[in-house]
Design a protein that fits this description.
411 residues; alpha+beta; 2 domains; 10 strands; 50% helix; elongated
């Protein structure tokens, strides 16, 4: 094997221009591979963060209620039933025990009880339908980062205080310190009953999600429970996880442990999963084509090398060098070319990704191009490029091994 290695190095050194072009070709292929990996993986992370940064990873809710039958028919069909929406709002009354179960579940970072309801927020003659989220003040920024998204005021959910979205504030023409009338319908008090409260705007946030910025309002948990006439329970419990990709497994475990309906963020974002899969497939195709380019370049060049060194190979064969040694010599050339080219390509790809990241930085400190140099799959690129080069050298090596010594010397 030492002889084959020395001979392979001698062939590479004796044709420096050819070797340099081969190394450059492999380096370009690896550069494309690592760039696509850094770009697509960075885009994947950004899309996932944009989706999961403002929502719960797992949501626990009461199971949907089945309308009660008052007068069953002899034929087994209901004659009278409570229509959906006419019954009392479903709630989790034993939510404290559910929080204890969630706290013991490995992988759960935080569990936040919430009271949800629809209401009308009015100022003067103008009113807007809002989605009220009641939450404990210390947990207000745990699920959605409203504490870091405030554009005016502060996150103060004291008695009678609310925090609203920026678009909602524009629609009502209000600012921090203004007072509004909050009116919510109550299902328990009978048809048409409602509760009014005077609230003060203490903070205005912008999450960048239109549906949230134009409709969501945050209220203190106890005040929201009183507003919607929930005696002791909560509407839902939202959880954040350490690993968002474990959401489906953990949601199934929480559903079994609590008896509640558990929904993961993956269930609510089926199209995102399809988009990520399509993106991954596209990236894989580009990577495969870059590796094919490397293999074709190495194979064609080594074929030319075999033809040019046909007489030398014949002389070596006449000295008793076996076909296996000839094959190993040319395969080693492919391996060496793959290693050198992939190392150069990885260095160029890493540097190019950092340069592109620095150039694309905006005034807000976020890059306009979602590239992540740390996710360039550099080790994989080196291994795959080296394997592709070695595999590409097999056919030229086998062609060289079949050279007849007498014919090669005579030609």
């Amino acid at each position: 094997m030492v002889f084959e290695a020395k001979l392979a190095l001698r062939y590479l050194i004796s044709s420096r221009l050819q070797t340099s072009l081969l190394v450059a070709g492999v380096a370009v292929g690896v550069l494309v591979f690592t760039f696509i990996a850094a770009l697509m993986n960075g885009l994947n992370v950004r899309l996932t963060d944009d989706i999961t940064g403002n929502v719960a990873h797992v949501t626990l809710e009461p199971e949907p209620r089945v309308p009660r039958t008052f007068m069953p028919s002899p034929r087994g069909r209901a004659l009278f039933a409570v229509q959906p929406g006419r019954d009392d709002a479903a709630e989790i009354r034993t939510y404290r025990s559910v929080l204890e179960v969630a706290a013991r579940m490995p992988g759960v970072r935080v569990a936040v009880p919430q009271v949800l309801g629809n209401a009308t927020l009015a100022r003067g003659t103008k009113s807007v339908a809002v989605a009220v989220t009641g939450v404990a003040p210390e947990q207000a920024g745990t699920i959605a980062p409203i504490d870091r998204s405030l554009v005016r005021g502060r996150l103060d959910l004291g008695v009678g205080n609310v925090v609203i979205g920026s678009t909602l504030a524009q629609d009502l023409a209000v600012d921090v310190g203004d007072r509004l009338v909050l009116r919510a319908a109550r299902s328990r008090a009978g048809a048409g009953a409602s509760a009014d409260a005077i609230v003060t705007v203490r903070g205005i946030f912008t999450l960048g999600v239109q549906a949230v910025d134009e409709r969501v309002m945050y209220l203190e948990l106890t005040a929201a429970r009183k507003l919607f006439d929930l005696a002791e329970g909560v509407s839902q419990i939202e959880l954040k996880l350490d690993d968002i990709w474990q959401a489906e497994e953990l949601s199934a475990g929480l559903a079994r442990a609590t008896g509640l309906k558990a929904t993961s963020w993956l269930d609510r974002n089926a199209r995102l999963q399809e988009g990520l899969r399509a993106q991954a497939s596209t990236a894989t195709m580009i990577k495969v084509f870059s590796l094919l380019t490397i293999a074709i370049g190495v194979a064609s060049t080594l074929f030319l090398s075999v033809m040019r060194r046909r007489s030398e190979i014949g002389i070596l064969r006449s000295f008793g060098i076996g076909r296996g040694a000839v094959v190993r010599t040319f395969v080693l050339q492919g391996v060496l070319i793959g290693i050198m080219g992939s190392v150069v390509g990885v260095a160029l790809g890493f540097a190019f990704a950092h340069v592109l990241l620095a150039i694309s930085m905006t005034a807000t400190g976020a890059p306009s191009i979602p590239i992540d140099p740390a996710r360039g799959e550099y080790l994989r690129a080196i291994l795959l490029a080296t394997a592709a080069s070695a595999f590409a050298a097999i056919l030229p090596a086998w062609s060289a091994a079949k050279t007849d010594p007498l014919e090669a010397i005579q030609s």
